[in-house]
Write a structure and sequence with these properties.
By secondary structure, the chain is of the alpha+beta class. It has 3 domains: 104 residues, no CATH class; 194 residues, Jelly Rolls (Sandwich); 72 residues, Phage tail protein beta-alpha-beta fold (3-Layer(bab) Sandwich), CATH 3.55.50. Helix content is 22%, strand content 35%. The protein contains 10 helices and 27 strands. Strand 5 and strand 6 form a beta hairpin. The N and C termini lie far apart (80 Å).
């Protein structure tokens, strides 16, 4: 085998042995690359990222003639830089997507590829059930429903699609596996003021925040594991090297193999975000691919269509799942917006001075909303009143 002379993504993706190892591994290739990794630990991140990019597309066999494959390769070469490359074997393999763009350090590679055989799912057409009376609702593929009234809800699907609630109650709804490749989709709707955890059939765990929903297969039967999220969720994705995990929202699509991250995609908020805690993810925003690393925040502003990727402290973004809200010089108006969504209460300000106060610290979300404002009023110059179920906040002059 010819060892790679450099471990950047561009050289890796153009390396014959690397391509074969990622898409068609053999014992010999496994031994070669495992040995290479052990001898070159500094190259681990570049190798994992290059492998991730190659695995992110669905490959299928295609019988093309030598002339057709040569023409395809000529088109690819025409769009790359003049730098001499190691050409990997393209025979019999094309990617089953529309276009893949791989950004390397010394050029751009374009693959002309066939359409996917899996038609996209119209999640927005499915996600039309609104929760009532603070009920957490599980909606099955046959449109039957199960209302779950427990205070702390943990729902778990096993590998066979059987459902357990709070480790004790087995739901009576039975999953009947389809003989076709079609997946049966369930929907979990979490109203404002409630939170729920959900374990999927592959072992992936989600924490769904207030006012959120997810649509997911009872059992993953396709080459990718795909779910839909509206609202906010923290995910710990079970690792499966052969089947990437995809999270679809109205504006952002995230693709991972196994990682921990938070995604916020509320339809009534002007920005969506992804915060990566562990591993690596590929986010797709307005057809733009972004590779994220741990402790990074990706934001998408709906009104301008702009995207930003920045380093961040992840704790304030994920602490809600453990019952805490972290604030760092945050305006009380912004804090109140988050509390309103979390507790499903209406909060207003009696004057502008109160809304512009800033707070730093953490709030215990395991208490009642009025307890939160009692705590805030003990350290900040505010007072509040409850008028017709609305919390109204006022600035309190300090003598």
């Amino acid at each position: 085998m010819n060892p790679i002379f450099n471990s950047d993504q561009d050289n890796l993706i153009h390396n014959t042995e690397f391509f074969e190892w990622v898409v068609r591994p053999t014992p010999e290739l496994e031994q070669y690359w495992n040995q290479y990794l052990s001898e070159n630990p500094a190259s681990k991140n570049e190798i994992e990222e290059a492998a991730f990019l190659l695995r992110s597309i669905t490959l299928k066999e295609k019988e093309d003639t030598e002339d057709e494959m040569q023409q395809l390769w000529n088109r690819i070469e025409a769009r790359t830089s003049d730098k001499k490359r190691n050409v990997f074997r393209l025979s019999y393999w094309v990617a089953a997507a529309s276009i893949l763009v791989v950004l390397g350090l010394s050029g751009v590679i374009y693959f002309q590829i066939a359409p996917t055989k899996n038609a996209p799912i119209n999640y927005l057409a499915i996600a039309k059930v609104e929760p009532k009376n603070k009920e957490v609702k599980l909606i099955f593929s046959d449109q039957s429903e199960e209302v779950i009234n427990s205070k702390n809800i943990e729902i778990k699907y096993d590998k066979n699609g059987e459902i357990e609630v709070n480790s004790e109650n087995q739901l009576t709804h039975k999953f009947t596996e389809s003989k076709s490749d079609e997946q049966q989709l369930n929907q979990l709707v979490v109203p404002s003021g409630r939170r729920t955890s959900l374990t999927l059939s592959d072992g992936t765990k989600l924490w769904l925040n207030s006012g959120s929903r997810t649509i997911f297969p009872v059992v993953f039967k396709k080459e990718t594991r795909e779910i839909f999220i509206e609202g906010e969720a923290y995910l710990e994705v079970a690792h499966d090297q052969s089947r990437p995990f995809i999270v679809v929202t109205n504006k952002i699509q995230v693709k991972v193999l196994g990682t921990k991250f938070n995604i916020s995609a509320y339809p009534d908020e002007m920005s969506n975000s992804v915060v990566l805690v562990e591993g690596r993810v590929q986010a797709l925003v307005n057809s733009k691919k972004v590779i994220m690393k741990p402790n990074q925040l990706l934001t998408f502003e709906k009104n301008t269509g702009t995207t930003a990727l920045n380093e961040t402290d992840v704790l304030p973004f994920i602490s809600w799942k453990d019952g805490w809200m972290y604030c760092d010089k945050e305006k009380l108006e912004s804090i109140s917006t988050r509390l309103s969504k979390f507790y499903n209460v209406k909060i207003e300000f009696g004057d502008q001075q109160a809304s512009e106060l800033t707070l730093t610290g953490k709030l215990d979300l395991k208490t009642e909303c009025v307890d939160i404002f009692n705590a805030i009023s003990s350290i900040a110059p505010i007072t509040y009143e409850i008028r017709n179920d609305v919390i109204v906040i006022f600035y309190r002059k300090v003598n």
